[in-house]
Write the structure tokens for this entry.
Amino acid sequence: MNDIFKMPKVENLCQVPTPIYELKKLSTFLNGPRIFIKRDDMIGPPNENSGNKTRKLQYLAGEALANGADTLITEGGLQSNHCRQTAAVAKKLGLDCHIIYGCHRPDKLDGNALLVNIMGATLHFAGEVSRAEKRKEVVEELSEKGKSPYDFCAGGSTSTGALGYVFFFEELMKQEKELGVEFNHLFHCSSSGGTEAGLVVGKSVFGWKGIVHSVVNDPVANGYTHREYAKVLLDEIKDRFNLDIKTSNECHDYADEGYGETTHEDIEAIKLFLEHEGIYIDPVYGAKPARQLIKSIKNGAIAKDDIVLHVHTGGHPTMNNERYQEIYRSINPW
């Protein structure tokens, strides 16, 4: 099936369209252009929000069900929003779920990992081997037991999962008409590469005229350097769906700072969003695109008459992780 518009999808899995709000106080403070935020952190599934990966899971789960799967298997870091949302989608659809974490078994669980465990997913810890090796091992074991697993890489960043952000523009452009605006710049975080590839393809498929700014927070993605994988996935999508399109985006690379590492500039961006708009953006996926947006306004790369969109991709449960609690306590010590 190579028709991008006919891929199987689980309807009503997401709470869409996700809302868009104007950040007037932040714009005034920065003496900048109009700034909006699209709350993809609120996407669902229903009663289980805080993270954008369900856009991808609509198509991943759709393909899994179409293939007769009874189990979802994926991988990620211990505080992965993607793993938590995969577990939630599996519960909602009545599927088993196995999660592979790229670490040794921890002494305790908190944040996202704690929620995954409570939802009843089976947790595996890769230890000294790669997550991909461990995932393959689990798939083989379940298949030998007569199960029908459907497995996918970290972030759901496959040519199927990326469709969630190809069709993002169908939703966004309807909202632009409703709001009476046309966004010139869109900022988002790029980690495993699927959101980036989907947005870059979707921009062309739906004819969106603005600039996609992909802000990289991860040096590696599914066995490649991040930039290599973004290109591999982009080419795979175009080949699979026979898309003769021109694609482009601007990349702002903070990968050398390390995945999940939070700098002074990140904390300042988090603080500005909280102080001026009362909006929490997480340190892993929210901070760096917000930081780059602010930087681009201050250095004049974005004109005052532009209209800017920050895509908030989520991560609230990280507030319950001890490491990130320390970051937030440092913003305004008690």
In short: The chain has twelve helices and twelve strands. The two ends are 57 Å apart (CA to CA).
